[in-house]
Task: structure prediction
Amino acid sequence: MGFLPFHYPFPITHSPLPIPHYPFPSTIYLVVNYSRTMPNLKDDDNALRDVLIQAKAIAVVGHSDKPNRISYQIAQFLQRAGYTVYPVNPLVTEIDGQPCYPSLREIPASVDIVNIFRRAEYLPEIIEEAIAIKAPTVWAQQGIWNQAAAQTALSGGLNVIMDACIKIEYLRLGIDAARG
Result:
């Protein structure tokens, strides 16, 4: 965290929140979270394109067996796009006639992308598994971000994409034509 001064034209006399004492009383300090400045391929269209074009197998962690859930819908989209999709969910044994694996380690084949539909607090454990199975890329869906897990993935040599929807990026980048 860091503090950036922003000068306010007059002193603040009332605030619903307690105002700590800083060096300049008529200055508002914007709290800036510098922790999200680590490399995230989400911001690099060429890297995203390469990851999506080169991938053949995608593990979908948190894959639901309920058709109204986003994880189910995205997995179906990825299958229609030609990827081999491995559902991962310890609470489900089969999805649409396909085996569902309790963990990444149980998948009997190599995986190119680990697409994650779990809350951010589960990312560290999932990233450790992705490193263990030597998956080259971890992709946390839109709204999911965990800095410590991202750093672990980067240190483990993985590509990291967080807070991005794989389907949206696939369509936005026109991957269908490139994979054709």
Remarks:
- The longest strand covers residues 2-7.
